[in-house]
Amino acid sequence: MIDGADQPVAVWIGRMHPYHLGHFRILERSLQVLPTEHLVAFVCTEFGSASHGPFDVFAPNERRTMLSLILAAEGLASRVDSVFVPKFDEPRWGLLRPFLPRRTVRCTSNKDASDLRRVEVWKRLGWETALIDVSDLEVVTSTELRGSLGAGAGWKRFLHPATHDFFADIDGPSRMVPPPGRIR
Predict the structure, then answer these.
(1) Other Cβ atoms within 10 Å of 177 Cβ, number
(2) What is the pTM of this model?
(3) Could you write out the three-class secondary structure of the chain?
(4) Which sequence spans correspond to the domains of the chain?
(5) Distances in Å between the alpha carbon of 33 and those of 25, 27, 36, 133?
(6) What is the mean pLDDT of residues 32-36?
(7) Confidence of residue 58 (pLDDT cuts 50, 70, 90)
(8) What is the pLDDT of residues 67-107, one digit of tens each?
(9) Sheet-wide strand order for 129-132
(10) Distance between CA 21 and CA 78 in Å, rounded?
(11) Which of 69, 125, 172, 178 would staple 167 via disulfide (CB 3.0–4.6 Å)?
(12) Does residue 93 contact residue 122 with C-beta atoms inside 8 Å?
């Protein structure tokens, strides 16, 4: 990971569950508009005795593989790192500090209200923030992806082509659909 003293490292925080085209479009836009050459995706995950928690149907290594496949296909592997951190909620944002490079810009998008709330929390913590405008992009959330799959929609339109074979090999489509009566 690059940790230059003068140039900030852009940091994205999320579950990336799974890493889909919406995530990629936001990451790509960030690299276009931010004054940095490097971005770190902090992927939150539930750790425990199993490889993943009840709401994380994809293990950390599966999500890292998806991200790596996309970055390699897009020629961005040298500009983006991924780091896995324990899942936390807004009152515990400060727990991230030991994982972060010295100078960071915490990034979020304007895709939904929860992302906008993050900016306010980060500003209260005194963190440098960037709100990435994605209003002109087709950005689907993982919740919308799961809902579409549950309704029988095809999954390939939501995922980067570089991940299609891997996602099929790990039986991703069926793992994304919650059991009847359970919402993920």
Answers:
(1) 17
(2) 0.78
(3) CCCCCCCCEEEEEECCCCCCHHHHHHHHHHHHHCCCCCEEEEEEECCCCCCCCCCCCCCHHHHHHHHHHHHHHHCCCCCEEEEEEECCCHHHHHHHHHHCCCCEEEEEECCCHHHHHHHHHHHHCCCCEEEECCCCCCCCCHHHHHHHHHCCCCCHHHCCHHHHHHHHHCCHHHHHCCCCCCCC
(4) 9-175
(5) 12, 10, 9, 9
(6) 83
(7) confident
(8) 999 999 999 998 888 877 766 555 566 676 676 777 778 88
(9) 80-86, 39-45, 9-14, 104-109, 129-132
(10) 19
(11) 172
(12) yes
Do 176 and 155 meet the contact criterion of CB atoms below 8 Å apart?
Answer: yes
CA distances for 93 relative to 64, 101, 125, 127, 158, angstroms:
22, 15, 9, 11, 29
